[in-house]
Specification:
It is found in: Cytoplasm. This is 6-phosphofructokinase. The protein is about 45% helix and about 15% strand. It has about 375 residues and is of the alpha/beta class. The structure holds 6-O-phosphono-beta-D-fructofuranose. The site of 6-O-phosphono-beta-D-fructofuranose has 10 residues, from loops. 6-O-phosphono-beta-D-fructofuranose binds near residues 151 and 250.
């Protein structure tokens, strides 16, 4: 039997369970033996009970749940070669050489390193007599497919990542709740929105609720922005609006690359306008709760496409990432997506916004 394992790694996101479920069920449908790896890469490194063969019913009633039922972790051991050696030994014991990794760019980079080292790791395991030559010969390569599970929507190559749509729902639900209290007191609310170095959630939430001002890392505000923002807030109050919303991405920066925080923004409003202002940090609420229909469907489609890709491989294949582009599932070279994402991060640090646009256009 061809065996396949799936794990979730890094920060959780809504819709990961739909992806895990689809991987398990499509694998069974195709005649592959699926395994669940619990607790992310920690499960691969520690093995034992954390790597379990899985049946159709093990993933029943999981689609509607938030988070990941198989657990996730940011695993330090897997970043070291010694951890990856243990992981390889555990996979060889279970005869698994197909992996579906659901995580962010860090987790997918780790998977690719593991794949590239595979032959060397097996040779070392044979030398150390942890596995036999015969066992090593059964699994001469490791095939991997990555799915991006992240609320941040920060990976190049895919229009959406699993979890982003649910997080947006969470944000606008919270903002709809704030509207009544903000309006009663005629208050200004400054909200911090997650997304690491990506402003996608902030800008989309801003559009969805009609925020007056957004601050995102990709477009640091021009000098004097404080005045412009206050003019805007004042003018909307003068037009009869009883509240204001300002959204600050957690990665927001100014022209000098200095972080702009919600409390910086509140201070500006306090001192320039004297409006009654409150700060709300939505935090991990954004990553919690049930997945939206979109994320359940996206996770299912991506999970199915991942298994299809591994199933069709006739031998060793390059690492792929499953992406959605124009509502079509497509497989892209994993490392070029990760590398372009990292280059965009560097261009952002260097505030080279033209280069950022160029890289976006090419991905
Ligand atoms: O990548 C998802 C994310 O929620 C980011 O938006 C945020 O910056 C980070 O993870 C928070 O990480 P942690 O859950 O480790 O606090």
């Amino acid at each position: 039997d061809r065996c396949l394992a799936v794990l979730t790694s890094g920060g959780d996101s809504q819709g990961m369970n739909a992806a895990v479920r689809a991987v398990v069920r499509i694998a069974l449908f195709k005649g592959m033996k699926p395994y669940l790896v619990n607790e992310g890469y920690k499960g691969l490194v520690e093995g034992g009970e954390l790597i379990k063969e899985c049946q159709w019913t093990d993933v029943t009633h999981t689609m509607h749940k938030g988070g990941t039922i198989i657990g996730t972790a940011r695993c330090k051991e897997f970043r070291e070669r010694s951890g990856r050696l243990d992981a390889a030994a555990n996979l060889v014991k279970a005869r698994i050489n197909n992996l579906v990794i659901i995580g962010g760019d860090g987790s997918l980079t780790g998977a690719n390193i593991f794949k590239e080292e595979w032959k060397g790791l097996l040779e070392e395991l044979v030398r150390k007599e942890r596995i036999t030559q015969e066992e090593a010969a059964l699994l001469p390569y490791l095939n991997i497919v990555g799915l991006v599970g992240s609320i941040d929507n920060d990976m190049c190559g895919t229009d959406m990542t699993i979890g982003t749509d649910s997080a947006l729902h969470r944000i606008i639900e919270a903002m709809d709740c704030l509207v009544s209290t903000a309006s009663s007191h005629q208050r200004t609310f400054v909200l911090e929105i997650m997304g690491r170095n990506c402003g996608y959630l902030t800008i989309m939430a801003g559009i969805a609720v009609g925020a007056e001002w957004v601050l995102i890392p990709e477009n640091p505000p021009k000098e004097g922005w404080e005045e412009s923002m206050c003019d805007k807030l004042k003018s909307s109050r003068e037009k009869g609006r009883r509240l204001n919303f300002i959204l600050v991405a957690e990665g927001a920066i100014d022209q000098e690359n200095k972080k702009i925080t919600t409390s910086d923004v509140k201070k500006v409003i306090d001192s320039k306008l004297g409006f009654d202002t409150r700060v709300t940090v939505l935090g991990h609420v954004q990553r919690g709760g049930r997945p939206s229909a979109y994320d359940r469907i996206l996770g299912t489609r991506m999970g199915a496409a991942a298994v299809q890709t591994l199933f069709e491989a006739k031998g060793e294949m390059d690492a792929f990432m499953i992406a959605i582009r124009g509502n079509e599932m497509t497989k892209l070279p994993l490392m070029s997506c990760v590398e372009t994402t990292k280059k965009i991060g560097s261009a952002l640090n260097e505030r080279d916004f033209n280069r950022m646009q160029e890289l976006r256009g090419s991905s």
